[in-house]
Design brief:
Elements lengths: L13 H7 E8 L8 E6 L11 E6 L2 E11 L14 E2 L8 H14 L3 H8 L17 E4 L13 H13 L2 E2 H6 L4 H9 L3 E4 L16 H12 L5 E7 L5 H14 L3 E5 L6 H11 L4 E4 L5 H12 L5 E4 L11 E7 L16 H12 L2 E6 L4 H8 L4 E5 L11 E5 L5 E2 L2 E2 H12 L3 E5 L8 E4 L16 E3 L4 E3 L6 E3 L12 E4 L3 H11 L4 E4 L9 H9 L6 E4 L12 E6 L13 H13 L10 E6 L5 H9 L1 H15 L6 E9 L2 H14 L7 E14 L2 E10 L2 H17 L7 E6 L6
Parallel strand pairs: 9-14, 9-15, 10-12, 10-13, 11-12, 13-14, 16-28, 19-26, 19-27, 25-26, 27-28
Antiparallel strand pairs: 1-2, 1-4, 3-4, 3-5, 6-7, 6-8, 17-18, 20-24, 21-22, 22-23, 29-31, 29-32, 30-31
Helix pairs in contact: 2-3, 4-6, 7-8, 17-18, 19-20
């Protein structure tokens, strides 16, 4: 009979496998099917069935690496069609009981295939049969009489590693990687005969002492310490520069003193090296990082160090939430509002929410920190679920920079910059300070248009325009990553008079270099693509020399630039009129995070915001009353409109080569669900605002319920129906629970 288990056709050797088998195992296969699979567990394996163990099993026409869920007493699949486990790959289960339970919970909550969830929870190295060899613990030190003069002045990374070895003495390979230096930099110093192998130091460098806490920090820390050994959720609501990181460090010190481990999540890879250095200074030799900037081997070794208890602190980005920490005693999510914590393809989990779940499972405190808390967290605080710890005092004598709106309606603009903003930058440079100009749009210009006939460079695969990257003479689609050469003349009329509509960061950089006699440093995805380029740019800024920073949201998070006293926000109007109800919240958070870069030291700061909508209620509220009043007004609107966080939502997305196929599939799902009623709403199918992307058409079905149970019951029905429907034209579908984007 049919069941939730899969039926297999066995191709040979069944009699021998069945004769030697005395048990059945439930296996999670990394595939799109939302179910478990039953396999024979041959006695020849000479191993008990251990949940969380990796095994090799036949699946279809190939062998795959899968995870054992546990033994099972019976199966609905005909015994003659069962296949046998080929090989057990682990001596010890790769996923601990705690992580395996977390994966089961997450698969159920996010309505995602259990096999794919567990697959993604494993390090990349364990998704194959054999993990890398043991960690190389060799260390490097400077040779006697090594002279930095032997290195080229332009070899910035080589010189930086030389200085790191000079300051710290011998460094292990893991230390060097954690500091952001690649193996090629080490080889370069070897070739110059400047370094040699050394025995790793058994005594780490002395720990750096932290500053004295102010009264707000001390009170926040005490409340966290008082909750040691029990699950408690804290929202550390502190303005930028108020010392949230110092509270984190003191709380970690307390956890480590009690023999516990700590998990720290940060939103961006670019923040990890500088944060790691600060943590290493306070906890020498006790910190490991997990993020995609590390090699596969290094990530596996760091994961192993955490699992074996050799790493007391794991610092990483989104996927680090799955690190195996058997003594977990504290969880920290910095910049908890940041959208990068939400996986946006495949398994669409929220690392922030899973971090809270991990703290609950481990009965330990979790700290969610932000200067601009998400509306979800503020709502949880209003309901009493989160305890709010407020920091309103900036470190030292620094004061929060005021925001001034610049009305640029009917103003002459030079590459998007008003005379008032240019004058402010000039005055700031003369005073010996640094200025930061923020524009969340990379490239030279978002549109290339022929001045003669009006032809526009559109993407051939998306409903979008190609962005001009002038220096590379390229047109790029920032949605599907398509690239083509910039035409020398218009393909329609042959003329070469171009209109570059709107500025990007590359265009601002070129203009500012011509307009000012001062260094201009651009920080965006294009200039930080190299492994160590971000660290080098930040290091250059922190020299404190007068300069102009130009960049995207990469500049908004976590950076401490003491010499920046002026922040100019070039254009944020688009976020005020988006079809997505979260856009205003996201824009406000980004605005205030950028504004927080100004005046972080003893020099006062100023923030100038260019806008064509100076009377917009959101801008007025933010500039005059601050984020808390703004958030309260926005939350009141959402309550009236029955929008999250006052309702629970999910989006079922579908894409196909033809829009009709995607919409028809979603309509079939809608027809299978409970009709709209009080407390239950269905919207769609709706084409996405950008219906065509990468050659495929996209549509969505939005589900909203006043009770979480209702939402998940209906999602379960939708998933069962979706898996039973025939898929036409390479149709793909996915479920997004608690989405941060509705389309």
């Amino acid at each position: 009979m049919l069941s939730t288990h899969c039926r297999f056709l066995y191709t040979g050797g069944f009699a021998q496998a069945y004769a030697m088998a005395d048990t059945l195992a439930s296996i999670a296969i990394p595939c799109p099917l939302r179910r478990r699979f039953d396999y024979l567990w041959p006695a020849s394996l000479q191993r008990d069935i251990q949940p969380g163990t990796r095994v090799k099993v036949p699946f279809g026409r190939r062998d795959v690496i899968a995870v054992v869920l546990g033994p099972t007493d019976n199966t609905d699949v005909d015994a003659s069609k069962l296949k046998a486990v080929i090989e057990v790959l682990d001596e010890q289960a790769s996923l601990s009981t705690a992580l395996l339970d977390l994966g089961k919970w997450a698969a159920h909550y996010y309505h995602h295939p259990i096999g794919d969830c567990l697959h993604q929870m494993l390090p990349l190295a364990l998704r194959r049969s054999a993990p890398p060899t043991a960690e190389n613990t060799a260390a490097w030190q400077l040779r006697a009489n090594a002279d930095i003069a032997n290195l080229s002045p332009r070899a910035h990374q080589q010189r930086a590693l030389f200085n790191a070895l000079l300051e710290n003495g011998p460094l292990t390979r893991a230390d060097i990687t954690a500091l952001g230096f690649s193996a090629s930099i080490v080889r370069a110093l070897q070739q110059h005969a400047l370094i040699e192998e050394a025995e790793p130091s058994s005594t780490p460098a002395p720990a750096e002492q932290g500053p004295t806490l102010n009264s707000e920090q001390a009170d926040a820390l005490q409340q966290i310490i008082d909750s040691d050994g029990q699950f408690a959720r804290f929202l550390l609501d502190g303005i930028t520069g108020s010392g949230k990181t110092e509270v984190y460090l003191r709380a970690i010190a307390h956890a480590l003193a009690n023999g516990k481990q700590a998990l720290v999540l940060v939103p961006e890879i670019g923040l990890t090296p500088q944060t790691l250095r600060r943590f290493e200074q306070r906890f020498p030799g006790r910190v490991r990082s997990l993020h995609s900037g590390l090699s596969e081997r290094q990530r596996w070794h760091n994961w192993q160090a955490a699992r074996e208890g050799r790493a007391d602190i794991i610092l990483g980005t989104r996927s680090a939430v799955f690190a195996d920490l058997p003594r977990l005693g504290l969880v920290i999510v910095d910049e908890e509002h940041d959208s990068s914590y939400k996986q946006q393809d495949g398994w669409r989990y929220s690392a922030r929410d899973i971090a809270v779940k991990r703290a609950a499972d481990s009965q330990c405190p979790v700290i969610l920190g932000s200067a601009t808390p998400s509306f979800d967290s503020l709502h949880n605080a209003d309901l009493g679920r989160y305890r709010v710890l407020r920091l309103r005092q900036r470190a030292g004598n620094a004061c929060e920079a005021p925001i001034r709106l610049l009305d640029i309606r009917q103003q002459a603009l030079q590459h998007g910059l008003s005379d008032a903003l240019l004058s402010a930058v000039a005055n700031n440079l003369r005073a010996g300070n640094q200025s930061l100009l923020f524009l969340n749009r990379r490239g030279f210009a978002p549109t290339l248009q022929c001045h003669c006939c009006g032809w526009i460079a559109d993407c051939h695969a998306c409903d979008a325009r190609m962005t001009v990257h002038y220096k590379r003479r390229q047109l790029r689609c920032h949605h599907c990553e398509a690239v083509r050469a910039m035409p020398a003349s218009c393909p329609d009329c042959g003329n070469s008079q171009w209109i570059y509509d709107g500025p990007g960061t590359e265009r601002l950089e070129m203009f500012l270099n011509q307009h000012f006699d001062a260094p201009v440093l651009r920080i965006d995805r294009d200039t930080t693509a190299g492994r160590d380029s971000m660290a080098e740019l930040v290091k250059e800024v922190n020299k404190g020399e007068p300069c102009i920073l130009v960049g995207t949201q990469m500049l908004a998070k976590g950076h401490h630039f003491p010499a920046v006293t002026l922040v100019g926000i070039v254009d944020m109007d688009a976020g005020l009129f988006s079809a997505d109800y979260r856009a205003t919240e996201n824009s406000a958070q980004l605005l205030l995070q950028v504004a927080g870069r100004a005046g972080r030291a003893d020099r006062p700061g100023e923030v100038l915001l260019q806008t064509h909508c100076p009377a917009h209620p959101a801008l007025q509220s933010l500039s005059q009353h601050g984020y808390r009043d703004f958030a309260a007004a926005q939350l009141a609107e959402r309550r009236l409109l029955d929008l999250p966080p006052y309702t629970f939502s999910a989006v079922i997305r579908c894409d196909a080569p033809q829009l009709h196929d995607a919409e028809q599939f979603l309509q079939q799902l809608r027809n299978s669900l409970q009709p709209p009623a009080p407390g239950w709403q269905l919207l769609g199918p709706l084409p996405a605002p950008m219906a065509r992307r990468a050659g495929r058409f996209r549509a969505s079905l939005i589900l909203q319920a006043s009770e979480r149970r209702t939402l998940h019951q209906q999602l379960a029905v939708a998933c069962n129906v979706a898996e039973s429907l025939s898929k036409r034209g390479q149709l793909r579908w996915s479920v997004d629970v608690d989405p941060i984007e509705m389309f």
